[in-house]
Design a protein that fits this description.
This protein has 15 helices and two strands. By secondary structure, it is an all-alpha fold. It folds into two domains: 157 residues, Vanadium-containing Chloroperoxidase, domain 2 (Orthogonal Bundle), CATH 1.10.606; 244 residues, Vanadium-containing Chloroperoxidase, domain 2. Strands 1-2 form a two-stranded antiparallel sheet. The two termini are 39 Å apart.
């Protein structure tokens, strides 16, 4: 990995030329490293950070490319960001480098000193590499100052979105749970010891794109415990599937689990897939930055909308319905996350990412997902982490959704509505005026 090689070279001169797409990919890898190795990790907070990190990458370089527009004025409550000084030249890789370092330190100020030193080391390594042939020190200073000014402005804007320092209150113990037939209840078989659901107020946060905050609330199948009802059959399908899981379906279930206690979270997996595509296609710097900005803001908005719907319906999961009405000894293959079911967060964020990636690259992309290669075998579930292969971005979204059904923690309804919602979120991100009109 580019990130690993640069960290190993800290304090030394780079031994080869680093391309612009490798610069962008290395900072994406650093963002995921910090996400994974910072305490109180959650998919909600991670999605938010990826949104601001991706946007910062894009805005730190966009004015160097006449083909592209800044999207600052098109976002919720963001009137403008700093612009380059007229008549001055900038080195855009150095601007991006300084901006990414700054935004990560600000968003993850709770991370360890060791992690902060890794951010500093990566920034310095790239600074030395890209400035070694620049004779004008003022060009270096001007470019880095501009990147930092973008990061600072984005971070200041982020403070008012409702999720600032959200890791300080993952679980609101004073929040009253709705109690009604079919409502979520803390399961016995769960990923968290908390009996309170994660971030119950997250759905009130400001979205990046205003149109995403205006999406209509979907419909849910009416609660009905009779055996021939549509509601009952949704859970019966989960029950039947768990009893006939193939080995590959078990592998899919654990691959996409992305437990925030052990991984870079589900939205981080979408950011990772973006890096896989960038390494394969090797686009120029602005297209890399656009990809990370679109994916980051898509998964951030997807989680806000998903959480709005989750806490509107506050729906139960199979681990409470099935033992009560189908089989009292049943447990899901994968443990429950600590929040309501409908719709699936995995599905909505993966679909939002796939929708923007399809639009950005607009060409068939075959690739391998190696995110969890090297992880120890899951002995409890008698399953290995095996590399996944895909022929399209949407295939990733579909498998991500399927994995939660295989894991026994989501019904097909949860997944289908999540995929449809993610499509809508991604389309609204795509509809921003990213590109200038052709002459």
């Amino acid at each position: 990995m580019v990130l690993t090689s640069f960290l190993l070279q800290c304090g030394k001169k780079p031994v080869r030329s680093i391309s612009e797409h490798e610069l962008a990919a290395a900072w994406a890898e650093m963002a995921l490293y910090i996400t994974k190795h910072t305490p109180s990790n959650s998919p909600t907070y991670a999605s938010r950070c990826l949104g601001y990190t991706g946007l910062t990458m894009y805005e730190s370089v966009v004015h160097g490319y006449p083909s592209h527009n800044s999207v600052a004025s098109q976002l919720n409550d963001l009137a403008a960001l700093p612009v380059p000084d007229a008549g001055q030249t900038y080195h855009w890789p150095l601007s991006l480098n300084a901006a990414q370092s700054n935004i990560l330190r600000n968003l993850y100020n709770q991370t360890s000193d060791l992690n902060k030193s890794k951010i500093d080391s990566l920034e310095m390594s790239f600074r030395e590499h890209f400035s070694r042939h620049i004779d004008d020190p003022t060009l270096i200073e001007r470019s880095e100052n501009y990147g930092r000014s973008i990061a600072e402005a984005v971070f200041e804007w982020s403070k008012a979105d409702g999720g600032h320092r959200g890791y300080l209150q993952n679980f609101d113990k004073d929040w009253s749970h709705p109690e009604r037939p079919g409502s979520w209840k803390p399961p016995l078989y769960a990923q968290s010891f908390s009996h309170h659901p994660l971030h119950p107020h997250w759905g009130k946060n400001r979205t990046f794109i205003k149109a995403n905050s205006e999406l209509e609330t979907p419909e849910i199948i009416k609660y009905d415990t009779t055996g021939n009802s549509e509601y009952y059959q949704q859970f019966k399908q989960v029950y039947d599937k768990e009893r006939e899981l193939t080995q590959e379906e078990k592998e899919i279930a654990i691959w996409w689990g992305d437990d925030p206690g052990e991984t870079f979270t589900p939205p981080g997996h979408s950011y990772y897939i973006t890096t896989v595509a960038i390494k394969a296609l090797k686009p120029d710097l602005i297209k890399c930055a656009e990809a990370y900005a679109r994916v980051g803001m898509a998964v951030a908005d997807a989680f806000i909308i998903c959480w709005r719907w989750k806490y509107h319906f506050f729906s139960e999961r199979p681990n409470t319905f099935i033992p009560q009405f189908i089989d009292q000894d049943w447990e899901s293959f994968w443990p429950d996350p600590p929040f309501p079911a409908f719709p699936s967060g995995h599905a909505i964020q993966a679909a939002s990412a796939a929708t923007v990636l399809e639009d950005i690259f607009q060409e068939p992309v075959s690739f391998f997902d190696s995110a969890h290669i090297g992880r120890a075998r899951d002995e409890l579930r008698d399953t290995d982490f095996r590399q996944r292969s895909f022929d399209s971005f949407w295939a990733v979204a579909q498998e991500t959704a399927n994995s939660r059904f295989y894991g026994g923690i989501h019904t097909l309804q949860d997944n289908e509505v999540g995929l449809a919602g993610g499509r809508s979120v991604g389309k609204n991100v795509n509809n921003l005026e990213w590109h200038t009109a052709p002459n």
